[in-house]
Every structure is written in structure tokens, then in C-alpha cells.
Specification:
By secondary structure, the chain is mainly alpha-helical. It is built from 18 helices and no strands. The radius of gyration is 21 Å and the shape is globular.
């Protein structure tokens, strides 16, 4: 029995919500994201209160990024080797157990950090498995793109409201009590996925290849490699603007309110761009705008060369976020290019690489700003990033004819728009 997937047509995001099985997946994502945001804030506050060290507090937050590459590499094979629902529920239960252990009175700081690492370690497996299973639930066409977009919108929105709500929560609850809510959130997510989705067989149950085999299979294919890098490379350069926001705002005399607005501008733009592309455009239009939008997506950062003030910079960051709408077209090209039995490993690699390179981008931008003016570093990131994206788009164009040939039906039709 297969899931009936409605045609996207002009229905926009309603087409994704029309699929009954997608609703609990969306609800589970919403609950777990809120729980994770609360955990990050509560644990950071708890570690600071226990140690009095700003360094340890910052390290606690950074541990949400560092284990991604290791978890994504070592666990990726599980995404296709075991049924998706089983993997997702197991990951949620691991996170719930870690959050519950953090609540225990007297837990040492070292144990808290190890538990945070464990949560981050399974995160890429969870994300990759969930994204791959979306294609089983929504099909691998336009409705899949809309479902992926909705999950990204939730994650972006968490940056806007999650920490504010978490801060309010910590005014009435102790950090350990807030972590108990995180454990409950992951248990709720596990229940939604266990009882709200079908138990499908594993895509590659007999696969016993090494953990690195999936990465080699993805990155060894010319088109898949270019598509993967198209997700990773722009984020590596774009993160420079966020990583250096505080020192730049200080240099232009922006206060804390202005700094908060600047930090929100790019996520607001990204959410607005995705919602517009997903609701106002059809699949063909989303595919057509992907290439030009990707090509110019990092150009707004060049405005930093003129050392803009807060009003201009707000507009610059908003435009940079709006350009993120190209990702919907990129999603469709990616899922069309990935073989089904490799989909879980490919999505896990995609998630882990994206988070890892964002963390690396923050570090590189900070290091560069030790020797160069902040505005020059961000403008340079925009220039180098644009050149890199143009090279990748050229590679995608060169591999597009091969992709169209693979997707062509018996009479020569093709459902894939290539570049």
C-alpha cells in the first residue's frame, strides 16, 4: 500500500498538510525543536551557574554543532539499514533520556557536556532519516519540496521566538525544571512518530557497507557532489554575517535593541522567502528561479564594504534571507538525483555537512576578523562565496543533460527541470 499524495498545483503548503501522515511528522518536529531550544538555553545557564565561567557556557552552546560531523559519518548507514520509524523513535528516546539525566541533582558539569554531545551526535541521523522518509510520505515530487520547506521554516522561526520564550520560561522555572520539559518534548515527538506514521521496511536492509561508503557514493557522483556542495557552500560564507554581527554592530554604534533586530533580519527574510516561493509559485517556477537566486544570494554581503548603518544593513540582511527561496528548487533537484536506496545516507550527510560547515564558517570568519576589519571580512565572504556558487552552478549545468536523460520516460518525457 502506498501513500496517496495530492498534486501540489496551486494549493501551496495545503498540499503537504493534506497528507494525513505528514501532520504528526510536522507536529513532532515543532515539539522537538521547541524542546531543543529550551535545552540549549537552560543548559547554558545551568553550566554558567555551576562554573561561573563564560568559556564553559560558550562551550556548552558550541557542543550543539561539534559532534555533527562524527555522528553524520558513523551513523549515516543506519538511516537506510533500518526502518525509518524505528530510527526516528530511537533517536527521540535517546535525546529524552539525555535530557532526563541532566535533570538529576548533582550531575557534574562534565556529565552534562557529555549528555549534550550525545544529543548532538544522533541529531544528523534523525534529520537525515526524517528528510528521507518525507519522500516516502509525500512522494519525491513538488509536495516533498513543500514539506521540507515547512520543516525549515519551523527551524528558522525557532531562532526568532525560541530563545525569547526560553528566557521567559527561565524566569519562572529553574534550569533543571526546564530540561525536564525538554525530556517531555522528545517523548511527545517519539509518540507522534510511533503512532502517527506507518512502519515501512528499510530501504537497504542488507547493506553492510562501511560508514564511509555512503559518503563516497554521494560525493563520488558528479551531479550529487555538485548538488550537495550547493547546500553547503553558500551557508559557509553566509554565516560570516551572523558570526560577526556583534563586533560590527559595536563598530557602527548600534545598541542592544538594534543588535537584536539585526540578528532577526536574515531569519525573517529566509522564512518570508520560503513561504512566498512555496505558496505563490508552482514547481516549474520554483525550479526556474533557483539558479538566478542562488547566483545572487551572497551579493548583498558586498554592501558591507561601504560600512552601512543599521537601517541599510537591516535591508541588506533581509534581502539576503529572501534569496534563500532558491532552496526549494534545489531540494527538488537533489531528491530526483539521489537513488532511493541511498536516500537516508545522502540526507544524513547533507544535514551533518551543513551544520559542520556552518560551524567552520563561524570559526574562519572570527579568525579572519582578528587580522582584518570586520566589514572587509563579511564583504570578502560575499565575493568569494559568489564566485564559488557560480562555479558550482556551472557544474550543475554541465551535469544537467545526464540527469535529464536518467529521468526521461519511455516516450522521451521528463518530469525534472534541469539547469
Amino acid at each position: 500500500m502506498t501513500t496517496a499524495v495530492p498534486r501540489a498545483g496551486g494549493a501551496g503548503y495545503r498540499a503537504a498538510f493534506a497528507v494525513r501522515e505528514f501532520r504528526p511528522v510536522f507536529a513532532a518536529h515543532l515539539v522537538s525543536v521547541i524542546g531543543l531550544v529550551v535545552a540549549e538555553l537552560a543548559l547554558t545557564v545551568l553550566v554558567y551557574r555551576l562554573t561561573g565561567s563564560p568559556l564553559m557556557s560558550a562551550l556548552t552552546f558550541a557542543l550543539g554543532f561539534l559532534p555533527y560531523v562524527l555522528g553524520g559519518t558513523l551513523l549515516a548507514g543506519l538511516a537506510d539499514r533500518h526502518p525509518a520509524r524505528r530510527v526516528l523513535v530511537a533517536c527521540d528516546l535517546v535525546c529524552a533520556a539525555c535530557a532526563a539525566a541532566m535533570v538529576l541533582p548533582g550531575a557534574p558539569v562534565a556529565a552534562l557536556l557529555v549528555l549534550r554531545c550525545a544529543m548532538a551526535f544522533v541529531a544528523p541521523l534523525f534529520q537525515g532519516t526524517r528528510n528521507a522518509s518525507l519522500a516516502d510520505i509525500l512522494g519525491s515530487g513538488p509536495v516533498f519540496v513543500l514539506g521540507r520547506s515547512l520543516l525549515r521554516v519551523v527551524a528558522q522561526s525557532a531562532q526568532l521566538v525560541g530563545f525569547g520564550l526560553g528566557g521567559l520560561l527561565l524566569t519562572v522555572l529553574a534550569p533543571r525544571a526546564a530540561l525536564a520539559l525538554t525530556a517531555a518534548a522528545f517523548l511527545g515527538s517519539a509518540a507522534l512518530l510511533r503512532f502517527g506514521t506507518r512502519d515501512r521496511p528499510a530501504r537497504a536492509a542488507g547493506d553492510r557497507t562501511s560508514p564511509l561508503a555512503g559518503a563516497r557514493a554521494v560525493l563520488g557522483d558528479r551531479r550529487l557532489r555538485a548538488l550537495t556542495l550547493m547546500f553547503w557552500v553558500p551557508s559557509f560564507f553566509l554565516i560570516a554575517a551572523e558570526a560577526l554581527m556583534v563586533p560590527y554592530a559595536e563598530r557602527v554604534g548600534a545598541g542592544t535593541v538594534a543588535l537584536g533586530l539585526l540578528m532577526c533580519a536574515m531569519p525573517v527574510g529566509a522564512v518570508a522567502g520560503e513561504l512566498w516561493a512555496g505558496s505563490a509559485l508552482g514547481p516549474a517556477a520554483r525550479s526556474r528561479i533557483a539558479r538566478p537566486l542562488a547566483a545572487v544570494s551572497l551579493l548583498p554581503l558586498l554592501a558591507y564594504a561601504g560600512r552601512p548603518g543599521v537601517p541599510v544593513l537591516l535591508g541588506v540582511l533581509l534581502v539576503a534571507g529572501l534569496a534563500h527561496a532558491y532552496t526549494l528548487g534545489l531540494d527538488q533537484w537533489y531528491v530526483a538525483a539521489v537513488p532511493e536506496d541511498l536516500r537516508g545516507r545522502a540526507m544524513t550527510l547533507l544535514s551533518s555537512g551543513l551544520m559542520t560547515l556552518q560551524g567552520a564558517g563561524m570559526a574562519v570568519a572570527g579568525l579572519a576578523a582578528e587580522y582584518l576589519p570586520v566589514h572587509a571580512v563579511v564583504a570578502g565572504a560575499g565575493a568569494l562565496g559568489t564566485l564559488s556558487v557560480l562555479v558550482l552552478l556551472g557544474e550543475l549545468r554541465r551535469t544537467g543533460a545526464d540527469a535529464a536523460t536518467r529521468e526521461r520516460g519511455p516516450k522521451g518525457e521528463t518530469g525534472l527541470t534541469t539547469i
